[in-house]
Design goal:
With 331 residues, the chain is an alpha/beta fold. 37% of the residues lie in helices and 13% in strands. The chain contains nine helices and eight strands. Helix 8 links the parallel strand 7 and strand 8.
Length: 331
C-alpha cells in the first residue's frame, strides 16, 4: 500500500512536497486562523491508537460498501490515529485499507490469547495512562494540562538519546499511501510541547505530511520538526477535536474512544460538549462510537496490533449497519 519509500524525506525535514519550505528554527504555520469556517460536509476522525485506526478504516469501508461514500468531504479533521486514517482514506480505496487491516496479525508468543480485555502488552499503555491521570490531577484547566504535558514530554526527550523522532518518522511514513498532502482540506492536530499551545497543520503550514502525522501521533515523547517539538493532537482539546468543524452543515464524527475523556467535564473539552456547540451553531451532527461488546479493543489495548483485525471487523459491521440512517444526513 505504501508507494513512497519511508526515507523519501530526511528525518528532520520540514519541506512539503506541495507547499513552502519551513527553514530550520522557523515555526511551522498554524492553520487555525485561516480556516474557511463554513462548508457542506465535514468528517472528524478521532484518536484511538492502532486499534482505533483499524476501527476507523472499518467504519468508512462499511459505509462505502453499503453505498455511502464519506471519503470526499469538504473538510477532514484528523487527530492522532485519526490523522493517519485521514491521509490513508484520502489516498487509497477504503475496501483495500480494510483488507490490509483484516489481514492476519503477526504471530504472538505461545500462551498469550489472540484477543481479550487483558493483554500483557497493555502494560506500557497503562503506565502512560497513569502518568496522564496524575498530570490531569495537577492541572487547573485544559491549557494548563497542555503546558504540563509538554514539560513532562520535553523532560523525557532530554533524557533520551535523541533518535526517537527519526525512527518514528520511518514508522509513520510506512503507513501512508504517499508523502503528499491531499488536495482537499485535511486538518491535522498537534500541540506545541514548549508552549502548550494547540496547533493545526494543513498543506500550507510548511510541514511535510509525514511530519504532521507523526507529530499528531506522538503521545509520549515529543516529535521534532526542525527546532520545534510537538505532542499528540489529542491533548489539544480531546481525542476528536470536533470543534474545528464549526460552520459545516453536516458533521460526521467517528470516535474510537466513544467520546470518553480523562479530563473533568467542567473543562468543557468532552465530545458531547463539542457536539452541542456544533449543533447550536447550526450544524447537523452524527456520531459513531464502538459498540459495547468491542470496547475492550480500545483503552489499554489500543496499541496492540494483534487486535487490529478484530477492531477493523467491528468497525466494518457498524459502518454497514449505519449507512441507511446516515444517507439523507450526508447526501
Amino acid at each position: 500500500m505504501n508507494s513512497t519509500p519511508p526515507d523519501r524525506f530526511p528525518a528532520t525535514s520540514t519541506a512539503s512536497p506541495d507547499g513552502p519550505m519551513t527553514g530550520r528554527g522557523q515555526r511551522p504555520v498554524d492553520a487555525t486562523g485561516r480556516l474557511p469556517g463554513a462548508g457542506r460536509r465535514a468528517l472528524v476522525l478521532g484518536g484511538g491508537g492502532s486499534t482505533g485506526n483499524a476501527w476507523l478504516v472499518g467504519v468508512v469501508a462499511g459505509l462505502f460498501e453499503a453505498g455511502l461514500n464519506v471519503t470526499g468531504p469538504d473538510l477532514t479533521v484528523g487527530t492522532s490515529a485519526g490523522s493517519t486514517a485521514a491521509v490513508q482514506l484520502a489516498g487509497a480505496d477504503p475496501v483495500d485499507l480494510l483488507a490490509a487491516a483484516l489481514a492476519a496479525p503477526p504471530p504472538h508468543r505461545s500462551g498469550q490469547p489472540a484477543a481479550g480485555p487483558a493483554r500483557p502488552s497493555s502494560r506500557p499503555v497503562e503506565d502512560h495512562l497513569a502518568r496522564i491521570t496524575k498530570i490531569i490531577a495537577a492541572a487547573e484547566d485544559a491549557a494548563d494540562l497542555r503546558r504540563l504535558m509538554g514539560a513532562a514530554a520535553l523532560e523525557l526527550d532530554e533524557a533520551s538519546d535523541g533518535s526517537w523522532s527519526a525512527r518514528w518518522r520511518t514508522t509513520v511514513a510506512a503507513r501512508l499511501p504517499d508523502g503528499r498532502w491531499p488536495r482537499r482540506l485535511v486538518l491535522i492536530t498537534a500541540v506545541d510541547a514548549a508552549t502548550g499551545e494547540p496547533v493545526v497543520f494543513d498543506r500550507h503550514s510548511g510541514v511535510d505530511l509525514v511530519d504532521a502525522v507523526a507529530a499528531s501521533c506522538s503521545s509520549g515523547l515529543p516529535y521534532r520538526i526542525g527546532d520545534h517539538r510537538y505532542l499528540d493532537g489529542g491533548y489539544r482539546a480531546n481525542a476528536e477535536n470536533a470543534d474545528l468543524a464549526a460552520g459545516y452543515g453536516s458533521v460526521l464524527v467517528l470516535s474510537p474512544f466513544g467520546g470518553r475523556s480523562l479530563t473533568p467535564a467542567e473543562w468543557g473539552t468532552h465530545l458531547d460538549r463539542q457536539v452541542d456547540e456544533l449543533r447550536e451553531g447550526g450544524s447537523r451532527v452524527e456520531t459513531i462510537c464502538p459498540e459495547p461488546d468491542s470496547e475492550y479493543l480500545f483503552g489499554t489495548n489500543a496499541m496492540n496490533p494483534s487486535l487490529r483485525p478484530a477492531a477493523a471487523g467491528a468497525g466494518h459491521r457498524q459502518g454497514l449497519a449505519a449507512a441507511g440512517r446516515l444517507a439523507e444526513f450526508w447526501n
